[in-house]
From TrEMBL:
Keywords: Hydrolase. It holds the Pfam family Ham1p_like. InterPro entries: ITPase-like_fam, RdgB/HAM1. It comes from the Bacteria. Gene3D superfamilies: 3.90.950.10. Residues 187-198 have a biased composition (Basic residues). It comes from Rothia aeria. One of its GO terms (molecular function) is nucleoside triphosphate diphosphatase activity. Belongs to the HAM1 NTPase family. This is Nucleoside 5-triphosphatase RdgB. One of its GO terms (biological process) is nucleoside triphosphate catabolic process. The keyword Secreted does not apply. Residues 178-198 are annotated as: Disordered.
Length: 198
């Protein structure tokens, strides 16, 4: 029986959350106890907030209320300095079509086409939220993190991998397992903020 629901239908995110939780909570079988929103017929939740933290909590809270299960949600995106922090919370639908990574990325790079590489500073932003239903204690937590020191350049882009793949950490002298887990393209770091179950 499900115990924790991810407020997403993304199977990649589900696999990553399961790996993060594996062996960390006594008695939790991540393969059967941690499920995505579709497994429990949870509704799609509009992202109506004005920040990553707000959007992630809106989703976690709504899914916890709808299912009666502990819910985990995230919201993330790219913030480009020269664009005033855009695309920000609109990263997934920057081109006007939600989830079209290639179109979103192409538009972003087009908007930066007359900007020199050294002025394309950006950061990857993410908020992760946990919501526990009232019946189980009514607890909520939100953590926010940023990966600064990024540069948005065409040579760093992998087509179809989302706008975050155009944001590559600069000046890394070595890549360790902990560093790799926080680099764009590996979403596992979205759920690594210090969320604690009550």
């Amino acid at each position: 029986m499900a115990k924790i629901v991810l407020a997403s239908h993304n199977q990649g995110k589900l696999r990553e959350l399961r790996e993060i939780l594996r062996g960390r909570i006594d008695g939790l079988n991540v393969e059967t106890d941690v499920v995505d929103a579709s497994a429990v017929h949870a509704p799609d939740v509009p992202e109506t907030g004005v920040s990553f933290a707000e959007n992630s909590l809106i989703k976690a809270r709504a899914i916890a209320e709808a299912t009666g299960l502990i819910a985990v949600a995230d919201d993330s995106g790219l913030s480009v300095d020269v664009l005033g922090g855009a695309p920000g919370i609109f990263s997934a639908r920057w081109s006007g079509v939600h989830g079209d990574d290639t179109a979103n990325l192409n538009l972003l790079l087009h908007q930066l086409s007359d900007i020199a590489d050294e002025h394309r500073a950006a950061k990857f932003c993410c908020a992760a939220s946990l919501a526990v239903p009232e019946a189980d204690g009514g607890y909520e937590a939100v953590e926010y993190g940023e990966l600064p020191g990024c540069s948005c350049t065409p040579r760093r882009v992998t087509a179809g991998s989302g706008t975050t793949r155009s944001c590559s950490p600069q000046n890394l002298t070595a890549i360790t397992p902990s560093t790799a887990a926080t680099m764009p393209g590996n979403r596992a770091h979205k759920y690594r903020p210090r969320l604690k179950t009550p």
